[in-house]
Design goal:
The protein is of the alpha+beta class and 97 residues long. The protein has helices at 56-59, 66-71, and strands spanning 5-9, 20-24, 33-38, 51-55, 63-64. The protein has one domain.
């Protein structure tokens, strides 16, 4: 019986411009490759299904919990979030530039 393993992968490894999560039902032991499918989570939740055969070196030491992988929290590393700041007592207005 196989166990699903979850990985936090570097940009471009599974065809994303940023970090993403992948899952595999095979064991990344030895010098072989491992079949990893990209998880639809975090910032990549709307991407189409994608999978690749990766060298074990791409997933070695990158295993994470199922909870982290499904939350997608790490996929936002390196992205920007714009937050408007409103001073106390000031009118609601935003200046971009």
């Amino acid at each position: 019986m196989s166990t699903t393993r979850y990985f936090y992968l570097k940009p471009e490894v599974l065809s994303t411009s940023g970090f993403c999560y992948g899952a595999s039902d095979s064991s990344p032991d030895g010098d072989a490759t491992v079949h990893v499918r990209r998880l639809a989570s975090g910032r990549w939740i709307d991407l189409a299904e994608f999978a690749a055969e990766l060298p074990v070196s791409a997933v070695r030491h990158r295993e994470v919990s199922e909870q982290e992988a499904l939350s997608g929290v790490g996929s936002y590393v390196g992205s920007c979030v714009c937050v408007a700041h409103r001073w106390d007592g000031s009118a609601e207005r935003w200046t971009y530039g």
